[in-house]
Amino acid sequence: MFCGIVEGMARVVALEHEGTNVHFTLESPYDEPLHIDQSVSHNGVCLTVVRTDGRRYVVTAMDETLRRSNLGLLKEGDEVNVERSMKMNGRLDGHIVQGHVDQTAVCTAVEDVDGSHVYTFSYEADRTMAQRGYFCVDKGSVTVNGVSLTVIDPTDSSFKVSIIPYTYDYTNFHAIEVGTVVNLEFDILGKYIARLRHFEQP
Fold it and tell me: Are the CB atoms for 7 and 29 separated by under 8 Å?
């Protein structure tokens, strides 16, 4: 479990394809070494460390993960937002994030607002997806590339978020432009409510 407060960016240094899996080698931003079996969020996707070599480490993404996320688009040199799993005695600074990306979205607009940036993202949506909790609500929470954010002006298939300068500088939001594909995880509380409503219907 994560909270969507990105701790840094890891740089992709190598990719290895094995069947439908992809092994990513990344350069860790952490001073202390990661360890095997540790869970780390990569652009919002929870992946397990399988090998380490100094500051470099390897994680593996399977076909389902590659299809639902933007990890399959990564190339050498790209930066991904990373966050280690929450400590149970720590503060929940963002919101409850599982690290299970629901789908991708596309950036359709970036607006500079006196130093901050407002991004618009569009995603595929239909009634069935909404019934499963795949939707946004005004002032609700959403995770974009692993970053916990507050929803602005949602429609049935789009929403906006406002990014402060700190987040812009210290996450890969500075590399997001119109056409960039990002990962979305919708609020888990909304998913549970949507599921309960399904069972309440006659």
Answer: yes
